[in-house]
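Ticket reopened. Same input as before:
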Amino acid sequence: MKKDGFVEEFKRNKALFAMAAPAFILVLVMSYLPMAGLVLAFKNYRYDLGVFGSPWNGLGNFRYLFQSGTGWLITRNTVLYNLLNLITSQILAVVIAIFITEIHRKYFKKVTQTVILLPYFISWVVVGVFVFSIFNYETGLINNFVKAAGGEPINFYGMPAAWPFIICAFNAWKWTGYNSVIYIAAITGVDGEINEAAAIDGATIFQRIRYITMPSIRPTMVTMILLQIGRILRGDFEMFYQIVGNNGQLFNATDVIDTYVFRSLLVNPDIGMTAAATFYQSVLCFIIIMVVNAIVKKIDEDYALF
Amino acid sequence: MAKEDFIEAPKKIKLSTSSKVFYGISYAVVLLMAIICLIPFLLLISGSFTSEQWIRFNGFSLLPGELSLEAYKIIFKTPERILRAYGVSFFVTIVGTALGLFLTTLTAYVISRKDFKYRNVLSFFFYFTTLFNGGMVSTYIFYIQYLHLKDSLWAVILPGMFNVFYLLIMRTFVNNIPFALIESAKLDGAGEWRIFFQIILPLLKSGFATIGLFLALGYWNDWYNAMLYLSTETKYPLQYMLYSIQQQTQALSRIAAQAGIQVQNLPSNSLKLAMAVVATGPIVILYPFVQKYFIAGITIGSVKG
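Engineering reply: fixed in the latest deploy. New output:
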């Protein structure tokens, strides 16, 4: 009889265990072991005593984080930015994907698709340079136009209200190409003959989009939205940090959990409160994705992530 | 996209007016989006070829003002700093991509082996890290205090080396290889490592290209790990070097705006743009040739494993 314990499996597939070992160890060390550091949220961290030697502090760090008002502010900002970015970037990607698949001039199609995907390849540092070149006070592109029209230059970097729009625009700029590739794949996955037959039967282009294209991208859309909801409390640190930087005047409108954590970690260290913020972020994100996935699974198993 | 992906226009059917309007709008919107995607690049390139003096008085513009190679001359007159940063970026990209590719392929192969009992447990072990993680603080403290990665190039290589998203894409490539091939090789007496190196690897060329390019792009564009962990300037990769320069100009400009004065010697506007061009150049030049691998990867990655 074939035995099925761990030892037998190990003997049988020794080589496979060895092949998986490097990645297993890497992920264990780089991703799993740091999870133990989450206890810092309940501690008063002292470098000399290390993570585990530092004294306990109960819920003090959390109390401090939320009583100061910062906790609420950064949570609100993170959630609102994620919702705004989710809606705008998905809608734009779907629109672009539908238009691109309906365009028949091969050359036009190829060139525009290449160009629209280009921003995905650009580092956020360079995007930061773009933003500065467009919006800065002395030499920015927009202020040049304003000055040329005889107006007073606008100090965007002292104007919090402008930044949700700027951030949202650059997020869409960076991701529309990437997301539209996914939607184009979903649309072209539909048999071209269905579309042709519908057209011959007299379906208008709008009917084809409504009854053939839209249903074909629905599963993709659900997956993408689910993935984003699973990250609703995670700010895209690289984007916010490069676009806004350490500009205190804009923090009320632009500070998200991740940028706040970064500053309190490296600029003016407050390990306890920062650890509380990341603990709250990690745990809540995990709960949200588990709950949302369970609900989706109940409604329609095919749409669940796992 | 492959040729067969295009939906052929029904040629014999006359387009109605509303369809014509639709097509008109779709061309216009796509074209507009493409232009919006290009504008920042235009700004970047023309700025880098404009003299510093001109930018100071007239600001950035979409077309080069007073043509000048000044910024590039400065970069290449004392190239040590830039060349070193280039060298670091190349080193990190090549080493990280090679190691990451090897690790990803090995692991993808193991979790796609149907006769491996723990393949689902193992997949979940990796997948779980996308659902839950230690967060920035504990990771940072752990890397510095326990792994001693402060100011080590490993700190910029190790974190990006293995990615669950790439693992799942690679698994899709491995799954395309029929299992019977492995079984028959086994019957012929080939060992596991030999099967992997001599049978599996040669069949994974497009998988290699795809994942290798994603990894390389990630390493080339990384500045975040460099910012967190590196403290010696000679170890800075190109993107982080560019970021430090950007940081200096931005701070000065902010002070100027608050005080309501024009700063006459904002350092190196055109220099900064020229550096951005130098840092982005390799990607933009390579991109059209490797685009299909990225599109394949993005498409495969979007399908749930």
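Chain A has a mean pLDDT of 91. Chain A touches chain B through 120 residues (CB under 8 Å). Please confirm and we'll close it.
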